[in-house]
Amino acid sequence: MAPGILQAKALTKSFKGFYAVDGVTLNVEEGSIHALIGANGAGKTTCFNLLSKFLEPTSGSIVFKGKDITRSKPDRVARLGLVRSFQISAVFGGLSVMENVSLALQRGRGESFDFWRSPRALAHQRPRAEELLESVGLSAYKETPAAELPYGRKRALELATTLALDPEVMLLDEPTAGMATEDVGRIARLIQTVAKGRTVVMVEHNLGVVSELCDRITVLARGQILVEGDYETVSRDERVIESYIGGGGHE
Q1: 2 has a pLDDT exceeding 70
Q2: Share in percent of the chain as helix, strand, coil (round to 5)
Q3: Which helix (H) or strand (E) holds 178?
Q4: Helix, strand or coil for residue 102?
Q5: What are the start-end ranges of the H helices in 22-96?
Q6: How confident is the model at residue 181 (pLDDT cuts 50, 70, 90)?
Q7: How far apart are CA 141 and CA 98, in angstroms?
Q8: How many other C-beta atoms lie within 10 A of the C-beta of residue 193?
Q9: Which partner from 48, 71, 80, 169 sits 20 to 30 angstroms from 199, CA to CA?
């Protein structure tokens, strides 16, 4: 297999002798949607936090676009094009939907965020912000305070703010967690739309979403890779079936 846009080599993370991730090697192909799944305690969230640089590995390496980013900080890798979302919606509740996206678009200005300036100061961001809101179905909500959005719409706003950073690789942490059935379908379709021309790595507990969206799936168990392949391959593997039935749920 050719080197992917994002690679992990023998990635390990231990906490006081407990190995949450133990020698994981991944190759995420450019343009693919790649899922990390597993039962409770499998290590997928820790692995995700390592890939997104919110945790430092005990050993192993991470390579993004041919560059070693093992010891890089999250803000640096975000500028390189590797951007993550969070399981808990991370938006500014007191600001409007439009203001949230406009602030995200300021990433090109470095670290200067104009929370205290008049809306006029953000006007030049508005055309692009409106495009992003339309792409995630939030045009009708642009002046709504983010705190007043239904949960599923907040996650759509988070997708818009992630897209505002113009990522080459989007790391999505449980994008459908806690959603009603109708919201799950909407967010899955949005991910499929925004993934065009990008690479997506996602931790996801909903196997229906995984089967619909993902090109490749890595199943983790006890911090190690149990099996990897397309949905048909992993769903028929006896070890995966046993892991899920015996695991009592998902991490």
Answers
A1: yes
A2: 40, 25, 35
A3: none
A4: helix
A5: 44-51, 74-80
A6: confident
A7: 8
A8: 12
A9: 71
State the Cα–Cα distance between residues 178 and 38, nearest whole angstrom: 17
Residue 11 to residues 45, 180, 216, Cα–Cα distance (Å): 13, 35, 19
Cα 169 to chain centroid distance, Å, stands at 9
pTM of the model: 0.86
Report CA 35 to chain centroid distance, whole Å.
10
114 by Cβ neighbours in 10 Å (0-12 / 13-18 / 19+) ranks as middle
Reported as a single tens digit per residue, the pLDDT across 111-138 is 445 554 555 556 677 899 999 999 899 9
pLDDT digits 0-9 by tens, 45-80? 999 999 999 999 999 999 999 999 999 998 899 889
- Report the distance separating Cα 15 and Cα 1, nearest Å: 32
Instruction: Using alpha carbons only, give the angle 39, 11, 47 rounded to the nearest 5 degrees.
Output: 35
Three-class SS state of 36: strand
- What counts of helices (H) and strands (E) characterise the chain? 9, 10
Give first-to-last CA distance, the chain, whole Å: 29
d(CA 192, CA 214) in angstroms, rounded, equals: 9
Is 36 within 8 Å of 218 (Cβ atoms)? yes
Question: Is the distance from CB of 76 to CB of 107 less than 8 angstroms?
Answer: no
Alpha carbon 119 to chain centroid, angstroms: 30
